[in-house]
Amino acid sequence: MNEQEPAPPVPAAPWWKFPLVWMVIAGPACVVVAGFGTLWIALAIPDPVVAEDYYRQGIQINRTLADKKLVPALVGRNHAATPGNDMPAPKRAAP
């Protein structure tokens, strides 16, 4: 009986020749690039600073709206479907 010699082992391909490896690497690489992009945007375009007297400005806006017969949300929210002449007058804070 004639036995066949086993075939010589095929050398394994290097890791960078497998497409699945690049798919696994691509996800984290995209996240790192997006993180640096977000960092660049955050440093290049800072958020505006909130005014120090924001509360006083808000009260002034509410007074302006009340003067124009527009009611602040807390007063008018339950009267959205009520006719304008039946709406309660807005409460004014003491100065």
Structure commentary:
- The protein is mostly helical and 95 residues long.
- The chain has a domain at 15-44.
- The chain is built from three helices and no strands.
- The chain has helices at 19-44, 54-67, 73-76.
- The longest helix has 26 residues, at 19-44.
- The termini are far apart.
Please report the total strand number as a whole number: 0
N-to-C span: 113 Å
Radius of gyration: 35 Å
Number of helices: 3
SS class: mainly alpha
Poorly predicted spans: none
Q: Give the biggest beta sheet.
A: none
Q: Averaged pLDDT, please?
A: 78
Q: What helical percentage do the residues reach?
A: 40-55%
Please summarize what this structure is.
The chain is mainly alpha-helical. It is 46% helix and 0% strand.
Annotation keywords:
3 helices, rod-shaped, 0% strand, mainly alpha, 95 residues, 46% helix
Mind sketching the topology for me?
Elements: H1 19-44, H2 54-67, H3 73-76
